[in-house]
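Appendix B, Record 12. Input sequence as logged:
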Amino acid sequence: MTSLPLSPDTATFTGGAVFLDYASLDFGDLDAAALYRVFPDLTLHLHTTPAQIAERLAGAEVAIVSDLHLPAEILGRLPRLKLILLASTGTNAVDLAAVRRLGITVCHCQGYGTHAVAQHTLALILALTNHVARYSALVSAGQWSAADRFCLTDYPISGLNDKRLAIVGQGELGRRVAYLAEAFGMQVSFAGLPGREGPQDKIALDELLPLADIVSLHCPLTPETAGLINTRRLGLMKRSALLINTARGGLIDDTALAGALREGRLAGAALDVLSQEPPPHNHPLLTGDIPNLLITPHVAWSTTGARQCALQQLAENGQAWLAGQPIRVVS
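Logged structural output:
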């Protein structure tokens, strides 16, 4: 992704900038120089608890957050706050109605993790179709060493070249996944969300689900899409189908998915996100007895290159706001 040039002229900013949860973005492998050029007085907190937010932002004009939630109650106690920079594409971490009322500008990052998330999406698909974890477990258990022939074929591997992939979400990420899937010879169709079927190249979701071998979610979480994949829609899918989610956990009814997998009404699912993160120990998808379920801990976005790109975009967004021409504006 092309970066915007950063001007040294912004080095005069002294309004107070605070990054509340820097460790959520930098795992010790990033270069924050660009951000410091824009905000020389930047205060970096590796971690901040919800109880510490108001105190740490008390004198700041700029707040930078990666994973923390900024509710209306806290925002209303920060009269100096003028700008919130989100180190993410999602905007549900901020009460948007409150920031509009308070006159706070919110800018987020865009597209920084497209390649990373698309790569992880295909990795999850391949992990399910090629039974990677299952075969690795057989080898670790000594079953290959004890075999009477050169290979194990306990789990039939399914090729992707004849499969139909339904992608829910036709943004930059959905299109990138489509590009990679087509390289595997898959037939790609985009689903139209209920009430927003849109262009002619989309098929209504309820019409596409019975046709799809794999369904991959890449749409935002909104009041309209919350619980999108529920008991009824899982019932529309083939028993041999796979469900992939690298978008937002709230798109899926967790209990419904657990039931479908246990009862064999769905062949498998691979998720990088859950409805609550980190999930409680009693989360319905973490019971350990659900067959053909793979879960990774919200890591699809987190390649070093993607996170460095997000850091660069934070600096670009800050500089543009200081110049009076904010970019990537949410509110």
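The chain is about 30% helix and 15% strand.
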